[in-house]
Structures are given as structure tokens and as C-alpha cells.
Amino acid sequence: MSKHSETLSKRTAFHSLRGDWASRQQIGYLMQQGVDYPDCLSLAAGLVDYDSLPIETTRESLERLLTEPRLARQALQYGTTSGSKALRQTLLDYLALLDGITPGELNIPPERCLITTGSQQFLDLVTQALFNPGDICLVGDPTYFVYLSTLEAAGVTALGVACDHHGVIPAAIDETLRQLERAGTLGRVKMLYLVTYFDNPRGVTMTESRRREVLELLERWESHQHIYLLEDAAYRELWFEAPPPPSCLSLDSTRERVILTQTFSKSLSPGLRTGWGILPHKLVKPVTDLKSVHDFGSPHLAQFLILDLIQTGRYQQHTAMLRQSYRNKRNAIWKALEQEIFVLPGMSADCPAGGMYVWLTIPPGGCNTRFEGTLFPECAQREKVMFVPGELFFADRSHPSADVTMRLSFGVQNESNLAEGIRRLARGLRQQLGG
Amino acid sequence: MSKHSETLSKRTAFHSLRGDWASRQQIGYLMQQGVDYPDCLSLAAGLVDYDSLPIETTRESLERLLTEPRLARQALQYGTTSGSKALRQTLLDYLALLDGITPGELNIPPERCLITTGSQQFLDLVTQALFNPGDICLVGDPTYFVYLSTLEAAGVTALGVACDHHGVIPAAIDETLRQLERAGTLGRVKMLYLVTYFDNPRGVTMTESRRREVLELLERWESHQHIYLLEDAAYRELWFEAPPPPSCLSLDSTRERVILTQTFSKSLSPGLRTGWGILPHKLVKPVTDLKSVHDFGSPHLAQFLILDLIQTGRYQQHTAMLRQSYRNKRNAIWKALEQEIFVLPGMSADCPAGGMYVWLTIPPGGCNTRFEGTLFPECAQREKVMFVPGELFFADRSHPSADVTMRLSFGVQNESNLAEGIRRLARGLRQQLGG
Q: What number is the ipTM of this complex?
């Protein structure tokens, strides 16, 4: 708790402690870099592809909706805090389909489904409802950096556990829990947070056997400490080769250990700001109560639009098209990496089978990838290309990999810009590495 | 802090303290009453009128927006946390117009304007960014009960100050601050919250001179304690006879003492969940940082829609129509009150000059208006009409007026239902009062 006491003594009189914690987030710094270097070709931004946004589909659906007076009135009126029940039922059916089981086998009532303002709000609500300041959350090393800020804003300590090409390593979780038990702080561990599909930043998907191992491990620890798994499945639908494994939620026979969240920001449109999630019974009331205090419920109109798109099959058509579009972009950035980057000594990355990120590792000792290193300003100022330094993704920013890693996004740039961006990055790297 | 410690010891292992605070909110209980008595004619619900929702206007605007590829792409992409800058600039111009001054005289940059998911999110963000648990907020007695829950969810103590027909009473604020100073807790008072136009629940608007008196009072106390005024102007545009006085914000020459919020939920459509507010310089970063943690920004599509409606003048046409529509409903409920209620001894209410609420006071000693009294179940179960008990609107629910007051809404029911609802209420009252 020393970190928090320190903050308390330093803070100015007119902000709350929670306001101070929130101010440490890194996304603001990153966005400021985008503002400071506006002429950069950004491989940093997590925006989605402009050309595949569902303009016509949205127009048609809203036209249908707003020419049906009964539906239109409902869509423009207040909804409930949890969101449209019809949409929540439809999402559960859709989830069962993704998981290759029947809705009856999934066996989750709509009361456990919550519609939120993007999956970010779901992540934040769960965090606020579950954790007290000083509590502990385990996260993959590396992990989605915005969630690290969400934890920090709630005064929660994030502890990183090692990952490999199959996802998080169960033995690493086990070892961390043993250490915490010895230190007497196991009782503060409430949750394990994982991006389970084409993760941000590495592009790695947890294998089915790894999912089962992690669930078994949490079950073994149950008698010592109840630990939830928060499964962030934001990129689940953006697969390129084959559908990914079932969700951890569906593999957990208790249906109470896993908190799942998905979003329409990546698979449809971020401008609708609609995400959703499944809560364990015990968290339904606290999370919904908090959401009620935050905003009474997310925009109703967007919920009606999404319900229409799923019911008419247009959403499914759209995600099929998106998979093709992002696969082409993955191919473009990968080809450029092979031609420009992998020819340099010691460079490595895994080819992502979905999502929108490549996690690049550079050889140690040459230069480092941090904001305050020499590579980032070289690239941003001289070569006019921007990446996200790997340091942002580690719970402990002094992690050795934080010196030699970066995230490259192929989400927003078109294929020709991706190739150009990688050429610029290669020039910056050669300059810095003396190649 | 004893209240908080008590909560801490009672709470179950799997919820946070903040989750517990949020669970005390009353709106959930109220909505449950609506579920328990579905055949009731509700004079309780804060929903807006269905028949005047802007269906056609919304359809046309979205059609314009989504057939313009450049705009459509922006609307469907991520925006910034603060919201569309074009909309924020337009809102400042609109605010200046409402306040009868030029944008130059208003002199507030768009950086100080934040777009939120309804004004509720603005209220919650300000509360979280400003207050630490144990801090104090002054509120009108009675006041908007949802905001009392927002304060409670942040662990803030609400202290009620008396109001009259001109708004909050400056001498009552002054006396409360003196008492707090003597008790040594003045340093915890961060803010005064007021619904300054056609308030919820009383329908009263603060007069211009009262606004100036309150601002002067806060200025006098400045050397002892800096206290913000949070001005909730949700019902500002729903005036029936004449435009109401300028905002407290515009009357404060420093432009730094008043935090203002307005919403499109009442004046356009709650289904868009779009509100906005003006922050003092010192709170811009903490509040925006918190919003970034909560959701990265409110739905972009709704922001583009609202910008279009204001720029084309359709929003202004719509609010003019709404004023007529709600005036007719006010006339209907008032006529029914005169015929059915005011003929009973000791009944009183002020005729609202705007908004959507009537605050009815019944004679003391006969029956009480609380959920647990005999009138509420008599009305809900037998007469099939529902009101909101006055107790919800008092910071201290043991306030004597909490026994004899109720809020009646003329927002959602049509004119004939309003008359019928009042007839039912009159029967319930006569039954209970033995009239």
C-alpha cells in the first residue's frame, strides 16, 4: 500500500485519489505522440480499417428500424441498465454458436449478460466491482496496456505471469500463487486477466488444452483462494485461417469461474461503442448497480441496430468480409516484414493467425524500443513512422523484454501504407543498429 | 467514517467496497416496484413522452450522414475520449445563445467541454474525480435522488440544505458551512449540487438574483474552503411560459467556480444517451482521464447525429415542439390536480413552469407517503397508480417533509392517462385520509 500512501500525500487538493490513479494511464501519452508527430505513418494506432466500416449495412438497418414506429420509439427511449433483453438473448445464442454448443448446453440466462459502452466499460465495471485498492490481479506478460491502466486507476496491483506460443503458462501462474501464499498476500488475488484470442499485443491465441490446464489450476487453488478468470475475447471473430478454440467460459463446466467479454468495436464499428459480457451470478448485482450509477445503460439505438444486423444475418456476412480484409492486410505487413525486417540479424515475430497486431522482437544490446530510447524518436521524427514500445504492455516495466519489443498494428493502414511503414521502420532500425 | 467501516466488515468476500456502496441505490428499488406492479399507471417513471420522440428527424439525419462516405467513416470509427470537437464547439455556441451572450463573452474553449453517456455519466465522473470517500457534498433538500446514490456510491456524505420557491436558500448554505467549520470538517466540503432549472423533484427554477447570491456566498467562503457549484441543467430547455434565467456558469465571472451539465435525453432522445458538460480548468484532466478508463469516449455516431440536428436547426425546431407538448401535459395534470386533489384539505403543490414534475405535499398526520407507509401500497395494489415517495429525494431520509411529499411525473403518460392517474391517486388519498 506504500504506493497509494505516497500518492495520497503528493496529490493536489482538488482531485480525488482515484482521479490521481487514473491520470497515470499510458494511452494519453501515446495519443499525445500521435498529436506531436501528425505526419507520421502510424503502425501504433489501435483504430480499425476505415474502408471496411459497415456504412451501407448500418444505413439500411437504421432505415428499417426508424420506419417501424414501435421499434423506433423503443430505440429512442430509455432502456434498462443491463441493455435490451432481446439483444442479450441473441448474444447468448450467438456465443453458443461460436463455442460449437447449443444454447441449452451453454445454459446461461440473459440476466447474466450485460451490454456496455464498448468492452472497455465492461472491463472497468468488473474491476471496480471486484477489487479493493491494494488487491492483486494476475495478467499475461505482456498484456493489453489499457487494462493495466484500468487496474491502476482502481488502485489494483498487476502481477505479470509469463506466456509462450500457446498462451499463458500454467506453471508460471502456479509459481506466482505459491509465492504470494508464502508472502501472506494470496487473499488479495481476485482475478486472472487474459486476452484469449489473437491477443493484444502478441497476436497469440490460447490453445484449447492450455485453456483446460488454466481452468484446472484455478480449480485446484479454489480451496485456498477463489480466483476469477476474466477472458477478453475482443478479437475472437477476426480469425484468418480457421475458427479458434472454444471460449474458456464454455470449457468451464461450473459456468461461474470465467467472466467473458466481447465487443462490436473490432467486428463491426467502434463508433457504436457497444460491447457485452457474461458475469458470474455473484457479480451480476454489484456490476449492474455500478453501471446504473455510471450511466443507467448504454445507448439503446445502437443496441437495436446490432440486434437487427445479427437477426438478419448481415452481421455474420460483415465479419466474414472483415476476416478476408484483415487477412489481406496481415499478408501485406508480413510480406514487408520478411523483405525489410527479418533480413536484419536477430529480428523475430510470430505470424498472427488473426487480430490486428504483430509483436516484433529486436536483438538485445543494439538499441532499445522504449519511448525514451533512441529508436522511437529516430522513427517518429526522421523516418515518420510510429510503433508502440513494448514497455507499455508489461505489468513491471523493468521487464527485460520491455527493452526489445514493439507492437505493430495492421488495423487502420491500407496495404500500401503497411509496406511503406515497414520500409521506414527498417530504415530506422538499420540506422540505430548500425546495419 | 463509521458508516464505511461498518460496510467493510459486513461485506461479502467477492465484492469491492465501492460495489457495496453502489448497491444502496434507490432507483433499482423503484424500478422493481414497477416490475412488481406492471398493471399500474405510472406517475413515477422518469421516461420521456413517446409520441414526441424525434423518429423522422433522426431517420433523415442518419440518412444524410450515412450517404456521405467521409462523415460516415468518421462516425463509425473511434472518436476521442472528450468527444467530437466540432460538436463541443457547437455546444458552446448554443450555450452562449441560451445564456444571451456571445461565444466570445462566454469565453470557454472546447477543451473544457466533455461529451458523456447521458449527463449521468458526467455527474458520476465529476463525483469520482473530485471526492474521496468521507468527503461532503451539499445538495438541495429535496434533490434528484439518483445523484444522492451517485454520491453514496463514491462514499461521499450528502448534506441537505433548505430550498424555497426561488431555489436553494443562501442563508441555509451559510449556516451549514459555519456548522461544518465549527465541527472541523469544512475541509471536506468540495461541492454544492443543484438542479437549477425546473428541478427534479420540485419543478422550481432558481431565480437570477438567487443565483448571484449563491455565487457571492461561495466566493466569500473561498478563503476558508474552495467549493464548486455543480449546476445540473437537464430540464433547462423544457420551459413553458418564458425562457428561464441565465446559467450560474454564465453569471460567474471567474468561469471556474461552476461545473455545468446538460443532456439530450430530455430535449431530444434518451436512447442516444448523450449528455455534456463544462469543466473548470483544474478538473479537465482528471475527469477526462477517468472517462478514458471508463470507456475511451461516448458513441461517435450519436454525436454526429446531434451535430447535424443542431447545425440544420432541426434540434431547435424539435425543442420548440417539445415545449408545446409538455406544456399541454402540464396543463392536463394540473387541471386534474385542481379537480381531484386540491379539493381535499391540506393538499398543495406549485404549478411547474417547465420540466416534467409536480411535487405534491399532503397534510401531516393523516397518512405518510413512504414506500413502507400505507398510501403507497394502497395506490399501487388497489388503485393501480404509482408515484415516487418524497423520502427518496432527501439526503437525510428522516427529514420531516419526507413523510408528506411525493413526486408526480407528467413525462411519459399522455393527457388522458394523466387525468386517470390523478383520479386514482385521489381515490387512494381519500381512502387513506378517510375523506
A: 0.89
